[in-house]
Amino acid sequence: MNRVQNEDFNLADEYQHLNTDNSDGAMVTFVGKVRDFNDGINVSRLTLEHYPGMTETVLAQIEQEARERWPLNLVRIIHRVGALELGDQIVFIGVTSQHRKAAFEACEFLIDYLKIKAPFWKLEANDISQRWIDAKTSDDLAAQHWQSE
Q1: Cα–Cα distance measured from residue 2 to residue 54, given in angstroms and rounded to the nearest whole number
Q2: What is the reported pTM?
Q3: Which of 5, 48, 85, 117 is the most buried (most CB within 10 A)?
Q4: Distance in angstroms (rounded) separating the CA atoms of residues 98 and 72
């Protein structure tokens, strides 16, 4: 189940949700957090906005594409929106599969595609200024890796 939400998520709860099928031999998770810098500029808070309805649709499409590429069992994508502080969790991705290679690759694919396809907008701020963050070339390049496979 994929979710876009304001409230934080609990890693232990998410792990338990994924750890329910004894046929899975691998579970891989990723958590993205608010850090204190970006592109050499200090960051003290982050606001995330999204396009309701469309965002959830894109997350489902990304999950479906991952399922078409790898033999996955459970997939969970959670992305937070709203005002976030340093150290706050932003995104959770968890996948299970019978095999570790599929789980690792699918988890990496999901975050790479989420960053370029999902309609989220980031406003970074510090004590002096704030700025909307443009898409990064490095994110595009990471996603292009999957197009050649």
Answers
A1: 13
A2: 0.91
A3: 48
A4: 8
Measure Cα distances from 119 to 35, 54, 114 in Å: 21, 7, 9
Three-state SS letters, the chain: CEEEECCCCCHHHHHHHHCCCCCCCEEEEEEEECCCEECCEECCEEEEEECCCHHHHHHHHHHHHHHHHCCEEEEEEEEECEEEECCCEEEEEEEEECCHHHHHHHHHHHHHHHHHHCCEEEEEECCCCEEECCCCHHHHHHHHHHHCC
Residue reference for tokens 């988890």? 107
- Provide the pLDDT confidence category of residue 72 given band limits of 50, 70 and 90: very high
Strand order in the sheet with 26-33: 2-5, 72-80, 89-97, 26-33
- Amino acid code (one letter) for 17: H
